Amino acid sequence: MKLLKPEKRYLFPEDFMADPSVHVFNGKLYIYPSHDRECENVENDNGDQYVMKDMHVLSIDGDPMTGNVTDHGKALDIADIPWAGRQLWDCDCAEKGGKYYLYFPLKDRNDIFRIGVAVADRPEGPFIPEPDPIRGSYSMDICVLKEEEDYYMYFGGLWGGQLQRFRDNKALENAVLPEGAEPALPSRCVRLSKDMLQFAEEPRPIQVVDENGNPLRADDPHRFFEASWVHKYNGKYYFSYSTGDSHLLCYAVGDNPYGPFVYQGVILTPVVGWTTHHCIVEYGGKWYLFHHDSVPSGGKSWLRSLKVCELTYDEQGRIHTIDGEGNG
Amino acid sequence: MKDILKTIAVSAVVIACSLSAAGMTSPNGKFSLRKDGGVLQLVSADKGGRTHLLSLFCGKAKPVGKSITRSVSYDMLTGKRKHCSNSYTERRYVLADGDTLSVRLYNDGMAWKKTGVSRIEFRNVAHDWVQEWTDCYENFFPKDREIKEGGRYGYPALVEFDSGSFGLLTESGIAPNEAGVSMHARGGYLFDLVPDGSENGGWQTFIAGSLAEVVESTLVTDNSRESVVADTSWIEPGVAAWVYWAYNHGSNDFNIISRYVDLAASLQLPYVLIDAEWDEMKDGKRVEDAVAYSVSKGVKPLIWYNSSVGWVDGAPGPKFRLNTPESLEKEFAWCEKIGVSGVKIDFFSGDTNLNMRFMAELLEAAARHRLTVNFHGSPLPRGWQRTYPNLITTEAVYGAEWYNNVPTFTGKAAAHNATLPFTRNVIGSMDYTPCAFSDSQHPHITTHAHELALTALFESGIQHLADRPESLLAQPQEVKDYFTALPAAWDETVLLGGYPGEYVALARRKGNKWWIAAINGSDGMLEKMPVDYSRLGLPVPLKGIVFEDAAPGSGNFWRITERTNLPETIDLLPRGGVVIVVEPS
């Protein structure tokens, strides 16, 4: 049994980008990252140091470990988003009927995270934002799963991600972060409308449970924090996420998009930097873990660099844990 | 006072001059040390003349006292050779910064000990086989890799000189208060040998000679401390049935473990290993039940631990049971009480002194409770197999478990297997976990006879067989009998032929029986490979059995024949092998 140390590649040394969402469109890998910026804000638990104002789309020619990476330039700028306040965080993109829908979290003018949509004719954009955020949307860290004709959005994140300010899709008078043996806060899943521009239903909490069916506790270092991602492997749904303040990427497996998902294990041990955020994509018959760390910026947690390595499974479909190389 | 200083200065010059003139020589006269300015040069006298093999850059070095010659002679319970002997000449030097350098010229190489970093250069190199360093020493040894300046490389490093002789650089004689050393490339074949962390390293050790002399060398244990374990009567090398390869999570399932116990009982293998996750055994069973079942069948159980000093989060358990002196003592006492024979301890974190000291504590505690130890995910063996004879094997090798993890091994295994006898396995037992006729997650494309040959070609004090019960038990009776009779420690080892990565033919003796194993590391057919049995001293007629690969397309895997003499040449299929077990008739 091994803590795997696969070869890793920094994908885009030219700039600081993070939080990759990656999809294969027209046979090619497209990366939808956050675009980090140097910032004067004090580092805090609200994430005020993450001051992203635009995003670029990257693509890879062929093999992600060796293929040439192209920067397609600015695909979205908060100056063009009518409802924008600040902080354009992790987005994701989905294709339907030849159009490309970019879903992005952004604080509105009241500093509340909402989720917006922008539309393009090509995977690299530029994306034209809708005039208003999705009705009923909140929090951040988007992942969209295509399941035959339906599309499911996963979202949510703790602390600066504001998920603790909502319960049953309603704002709370005071934020509540569960503690100790209380169940951890769940990520959310919602089916999108046919036109891809709204929620088709009320977002549902999705549970990560242990082998006995009990939700992971709030003090479990493997509980959900942010960075939802869902992929399918051997007919099962793999829900993976960051554990935030315990700095792991973990995953859980379920048999439908809404879960529940049974906790399985750690995908990536801590990287250099505070946040860890990823996506898992199949390309050319192999699986890849796209992620980031703060090694090239000398450990500045708000200046992160995109990385990729191969991800493998054992004979029971369990993901082999990968060394994030952030411990000593 | 001035006169005295002058006298000292003059005598120092005299000694330095005599050194560069006479130097020092190994007891057999084969190796000599030459001084050239601030460089000590290791020179070997071959049939082909004198070759400068290695330079040690130590600056101004003043000899202290006279050189002394000593011999060593001892018996090993594990390894390639039971009775080991060697002799060396030792000389000590004071360096410009006041530190001491000790150099020993053995009959088959050189060992030196120095504070801090040693800078060396291999000279007159034709080819190299070097692995990139990782904390668990699991990498390939490609021929003539690009050695990147600034890169970190791991022992043991094999070089072939222009003269056709070979050298293997590694470490021995490490003490529990020291740290392991690795090689930091400084351009060309210049390396800094750097201890991990702030402690000093052990003895840097360079085995030199023909390929056979390197492969057969016991220099690593010759230059290590003698045994500190008084009663070793309970330490027994042997073959084990091993659940992990076919069932990665099988050790939490009593029924699966039972099938491996039954396999061991059926083939009369002495051991079974209960691997990770036994602390989460399903169906209301406990590890005590599995241990008791194994003991009841006459199979000695070994159990696994997470050292909990390396990979912890996301890693399997049991964890944190060995990490204080009290808990370690309690755990190993419990192991002894319930009937466990040995422990496999996994997931260390490199060559630092913290790891070394912890590993020594584990070995000492295990010896108190009559437990053998198998280190996994760990640093290389550096001679403790002599000091602590209960260190029965060590992983530190890219082995068969990688068929579980990634597709890489499938295409690389044959050449890697034909490299390990010349590199990793030279320096000590190697828990590669050989022999799979069936496939795990990623297929093997080595032949059946190649896989069988690995069990004699690779030396490990406990030889864990990779394959699953239904595959092993489906083999011909002769193959099953082979496993029953297979030793895991040897009286003598003789290299019969080969070249790293291409092929290897090796003979190992236990009592009056020889196990002769050869494999093809290449993707081409090897025909009529010459084999020199002259050093085995075997009289004719013999009683022997030969396990070969059946001809491709024959519908069989095996061609098993009895013989009264040895074949003069060997044919090997691509990635094929052959095993001959032979004794005087």
How are the SSEs ordered, and which strands pair?
The complex is a heterodimer of chains A (328) and B (585).
Chain A: E1 8-10, E2 17-25, E3 28-35, E4 54-60, E5 69-77, E6 86-88, E7 92-96, E8 99-107, E9 113-120, E10 128-129, E11 143-147, E12 150-155, E13 166-167, E14 170-171, E15 187-191, E16 204-206, E17 208-209, E18 226-233, E19 236-242, E20 249-254, E21 261-268, E22 279-283, E23 286-293, E24 305-311
Parallel strand pairs in A: 17-21
Antiparallel strand pairs in A: 1-24, 2-3, 3-4, 4-5, 6-8, 7-8, 8-9, 9-10, 11-12, 12-15, 13-14, 15-16, 18-19, 19-20, 20-21, 22-23, 23-24
Chain B: H1 2-22, E1 24-25, E2 31-36, E3 39-46, E4 49-57, E5 61-75, E6 83-95, E7 100-106, E8 109-114, E9 118-122, E10 125-132, E11 152-161, E12 166-172, E13 181-185, E14 190-195, E15 203-209, H2 211-216, H3 219-222, E16 238-242, H4 254-267, E17 271-274, H5 287-296, E18 300-306, H6 325-338, E19 342-346, H7 353-368, E20 372-375, H8 384-387, E21 391-394, H9 402-405, H10 408-417, H11 448-457, E22 462-465, H12 469-472, H13 477-485, E23 492-499, E24 503-510, E25 513-520, E26 526-530, E27 542-549, E28 558-563, E29 569-572, E30 577-584
Parallel strand pairs in B: 16-17, 16-22, 17-18, 18-19, 19-20, 20-21
Antiparallel strand pairs in B: 1-2, 2-3, 3-4, 4-9, 5-6, 6-7, 7-8, 8-15, 9-14, 10-11, 11-12, 11-13, 12-15, 13-14, 23-24, 24-25, 25-30, 26-29, 27-28, 27-30
Written account of the structure:
Chain A is mostly beta strands. Chain A has no helices and 24 strands. Chain A has a single domain (8-311), classed as Glycosyl hydrolase domain, family 43 (Tachylectin-2, Chain A). Chain B is of the alpha+beta class and 585 residues long. Helices cover 22% and strands 35% of the residues of chain B. In chain B, the strands form four sheets. Chain B has a 15-stranded antiparallel β-sheet that branches. A seven-stranded parallel β-sheet of chain B has the order 21-20-19-18-17-16-22. In chain B, strands 23-24-25-30-27-28 form a six-stranded antiparallel β-sheet. The model of chain B is unreliable at 1-22 (pLDDT under 50). The chains are: A mainly beta (328), B alpha+beta (585).
